Fold this sequence. Notes:
Elements: E1 4-13, E2 16-25, E3 34-42, H1 45-52, E4 68-76, E5 86-90, E6 105-108, E7 113-115, H2 122-144, E8 153-156, H3 162-173, E9 177-182, H4 188-194, E10 196-201, H5 203-206, E11 217-222, H6 226-235, E12 236-244, H7 258-262, E13 266-269, H8 277-290, H9 293-299, E14 300-304, H10 308-316, E15 323-327
Parallel strand pairs: 8-9, 8-11, 9-10, 11-12, 12-13, 14-15
Antiparallel strand pairs: 1-2, 3-4, 3-6, 3-15, 4-5, 5-7
Amino acid sequence: MNNPIKAIVINKEDNNYSASLSQLNENDLPDENTTINVLYSTLNYKDGLAITGKGPVVRTFPMVPGIDLVGTVTTSTSDEFKNGDHVILNGFGVGEKHWGGLAQKAALNSDWLIPLPATISPKQAMQIGTAGYTAMLSVIALQKQGVKPDDGEILVTGANGGVGSFAIYLLSQLGYNVTAATGRVDQSEYLKELGASQIINRDELSNPGKPLQKERFAAAIDSVGSHTLANICASLKYGGVVTACGLAQGMDLPASVAPFILRGVSLIGIDSVMRPKTDRIKAWERLATLVKADYLDKISTEITLEQVIENAEQLMEGKIRGRVVVNCQG
């Protein structure tokens, strides 16, 4: 069979970079061991960079973007999956080095896939997406380090972003006292609805600070990096823990060793791209039990493949809040 497939395709010839809604054939798909009917994908910040060309995300051309997807297996030579199975993909360079989820069909390596938990729908999986998955990995890391709700304030930076907002929600569901740092303090009520108890302006953390500061936070989930992460480390209580999962402010870490040596602070990196399958399954099983459907509907908007490029431009202009779910069969 060689049925037509709608897909977002990015091309680059000389210095001409373009993204368009295109029609492919099944024999255009990569040579991988599992083929999937993509039900839903998402529009993440990294996808926005790829589609608009505003960041050097795409490594090979042509490229189908989309770092997330959920779909139904149609063929697989893997013993792990069979025709009709619902599967999720996050990461593994999909949408950057390998064709991704913003298409009606995808061909992927079965090692990159995990089963969709039985208690969440395909759409709900993409309402959660990489943002919720990364937040869950961060929360699991804090709990693994023994951080408990009665230890004190847990700081979440980038609070209005995808990872930040999910982190607030998940921590709140687990009974933690959450402080949200945001550059959009006018949206404080929204953050409080998610579960934040306190709101602070990100400017309190974003400028150069002292190597050691007043002990305030028991732990933190940071998606910002740079001076913000340095100031978090300097403000953690003795034995505090911070997970680093983003670099919105920068890749640098202008910090000293003082918090780590004098206060026993721990800095844990969170990778959501190449995680072992056991970690991915555990995170998604936790998400399936913690995340409520009404919350997902509140924070997400559904679009079609035809609307992806326009929405990518709006995303890069900061005009979109919450999750954008792409109905790839709609």
